[in-house]
Specification:
Elements (H helix, E strand, L loop, with lengths): L14 H37 L3 H29 L1 H21 L3 H27 L4 H33 L2 H16 L20 H29 L11 H8 L1 H15 L9 H18 L3 H28 L5 H28 L4 H30 L1
């Protein structure tokens, strides 16, 4: 059962040592975000360029990655308990680095797909562990700031990596594997330095009885909406290379334009880190869930490039809000438990099955119909929003 995080009896560690520990963890997430972005989002532009893949094959690959991501995320806590968190991170980075070398040296279609699937399970195992290490041993107010910094670092790095992806593909397409390799090699060096990670304290009932039900409701709403955010992200990742509005542009400009929502997501994380209003207004997540649906349709249906960019900004803000709420409330209610980080990441994987999977199913029923793909993904987003409405209404009745 989830317990709220408290500030009593935290692990004793000097401020300087704690700052150094966090700096190392933030470095790991920045470096991990480079490879993760290139190998799970930028890769679709590579597949189009190198193997002339269209929307259907991109959607099928993305859905397969999502299914494997769920397995990796749910396995992370159990494997980390057996191996230890930092030894596990060392092993994962060694494996991911080796996979990048294989893809670079043998860039055939089958080998690249195989590499991507194995790489995905490693990425899924890595994030819950880093999230847990960042979140452990702190009180709710500090945790909010810490998670905001964490979110800002990985999202900003991802936006830059996505923007640069087209340049790499245009000049040396296999360079995306070298960029991922460089991130994992550097991560392995960072992990050579010892660090004393705190053990999260056990919690008790929140001293403010109004906060616990609000936090619980916010976690439920955010985790209902979280799969929808990644349904959008990975469906767009697969569809964007083939959208008619981007057809006139070079690969360099395509990935630059496609990274606008990622920059907006980083802006959302920055805003949420500077404020606390959202922590006591869980129903604001309903608005974000509705914005997901509207902005997805704006990006994919409206032909104007300016309109597409503006809708990406709205999308990024909604995604950032939902993601931050899911991670914060899950961690604050569980004292930074890696298992809760695994649930958070598993829902991400679920979204990357539902979004691309629904698009791939639409392609199978109506081959070559991009509007059918869009309608299928939009249906997933609509169902998510309706579930959030129902849970919110039920929570309101229970509290009255």
């Amino acid at each position: 059962m989830l317990q709220p995080l408290i500030a009593e009896n935290p692990p004793i560690q000097s401020p300087a040592a704690e700052r150094g520990r966090l700096a190392g963890l933030f470095a790991l997430e920045i470096l991990g975000s480079i490879g993760g972005t290139l190998m799970m989002l930028g890769i679709f532009f590579y597949m189009q360029t190198a193997f002339q893949w269209g929307a259907r094959r991109n959607l099928e690959l993305s859905a397969a990655q999502g299914a494997i991501y769920v397995v990796g995320a749910l396995s992370a806590s159990a494997v980390a308990d057996r191996l230890g968190k930092r030894p596990m991170l060392r092993l994962l980075n060694a494996i991911m680095g080796a996979l990048a070398v294989v893809a670079f040296c043998y860039p055939t279609e089958k080998i690249v797909v195989t590499v991507l699937l194995i790489y995905t399970i490693c990425v899924a195992c890595q994030w819950p562990i880093i999230e847990s290490l960042v979140s452990s041993g702190t009180e709710p107010e500090e945790l909010s700031r810490r998670i905001s910094v964490y979110n800002l670092f990985w999202s900003a790095t991802g936006a830059l990596a996505m923007a640069a992806c087209g340049v790499i593909i245009a000049h040396f397409s296999r360079g995306i594997f070298l960029a991922a390799l460089a991130g994992h090699v550097t991560s392995s060096i960072v992990l050579l330095f010892p660090a004393n990670d705190p053990i999260a304290p056990h919690g008790h009932a929140d001293p403010d009885p109004q906060l616990l039900p609000l936090r619980t409701m916010a976690m439920h709403l955010s985790r209902i909406a979280l799969p929808a955010t990644y349904a959008v992200i990975y469906a767009l990742g697969a569809l964007m290379p083939t959208l008619p509005v981007l057809a006139p542009f070079s690969p360099t400009m395509k990935t630059l334009i496609a990274s606008v929502w990622m920059a907006a997501r980083s802006a959302a994380f920055l805003l949420l880190g500077a404020t606390i209003w959202w922590q006591t207004r869980p129903r604001a997540l309903l608005i974000a869930a509705i914005v997901l649906l509207i902005s997805f349709l704006g990006i994919t249906v409206f032909p104007s490039i300016i309109g597409m960019i503006l809708w990406q900004i709205a999308l990024g803000l909604a995604i950032g809000f939902i993601y931050a709420a899911s991670l914060y409330f899950g961690m604050v209610l569980s004292a930074g438990n890696a298992e809760q980080g695994g649930y958070h990441e598993a829902l991400i994987g679920l979204g990357s099955i539902l979004g691309p999977g629904s698009g791939a199913l639409a392609e199978a029923i109506r081959p070559g119909s991009q509007m059918a793909d869009i309608a299928a993904v939009a249906a997933v987003l609509w169902i998510s929003a309706m579930l959030a409405v129902l849970v919110s209404a039920r929570s309101g009745r229970d509290s009255s």
